[in-house]
Amino acid sequence: MPTVEGLIEKFGMLPHPEGGYYTRTYQSDINVSLECLGGGFTGNRPFSTAIYFLLGKGNFSAFHRIKSDECWHFYAGETLLIHIINPAGELATVKLGSKIEKGEVFQYVVPAGYWFASEPAPQSSFSFAGCTVAPGFDFEDFELAHAVALVKQYPQHKLLIERLCRQ
Q1: Of 32, 49, 54, 123, which is least surrounded by CB within 10 A?
Q2: Is the dihedral of CA 154, 109, 106, 139 positive or negative?
Q3: How far apart, in whole angstroms, are the C-alpha atoms of residue 95 and residue 3?
Q4: Are 98 and 74 in contact (CB under 8 A)?
Q5: Is 60 in a helix, a strand, or coil?
């Protein structure tokens, strides 16, 4: 079984601003022009990008949102919890993993503009996943949540938001 340190080394992973580690594995050579994008984009974007993403026990990906759909894929380790707050304020928690008999899924799409955070489930030592984004990811499209502002918007999720924000 791989280890967190082994995966970081093997794939040359770097710390991600939201938490965890990542490395870009794919970026389309074809771009979507700004005129075709809409949705508040600031420039052309690749059709698609993909990364490996790794969270070890005790680490988390802080609440954030992006302007594109993000498809999560489970690869190795144990259950990853993805917490999603839709614009109406409804919270859903998806279990990404390989135990389909326990309600886990191998793949899940977080829609563009939804706030989301992730963390290994309490019994998980680490979760190794992939994220595919279309139109492709650019840090200009990334917004890290401020706990105070997000709690003001969704007070019913105060404890989760405060636990899974870095600012």
Answers
A1: 123
A2: negative
A3: 21
A4: yes
A5: coil
Residue 102 is classified by DSSP as G
CATH code where residue 22 lies: 2.60.120.10
* Spatial distance between the Cα atoms of 130 and 142, rounded to a whole number of angstroms: 17
SS (H, E, C) 132-162: EEECCCCHHHEEECCHHHHHHHCHHHHHHHH
Alpha-carbon span 130 to 74, nearest angstrom:
6
Would you put residue 39 in left (φ > 0), alpha (ψ -120 to 50) or beta? left
Query: Positive or negative CA dihedral for 117, 118, 121, 125?
Result: negative
pLDDT tens per residue across span 117-153: 999 999 999 999 999 999 999 999 999 999 999 999 9
| Residue pLDDT, tens place only, 41-51 | 999 999 999 99
E strand segments, the chain: 14-15, 21-27, 31-32, 45-46, 49-56, 61-66, 69-77, 80-85, 91-96, 107-110, 115-120, 126-134, 142-144
Q: Residue 43: which domain range? A: 4-163
Q: What is the mean pLDDT of the chain?
A: 96
What's the number of domains the chain is made of? 1
Token pair listed for 124: 């998980």
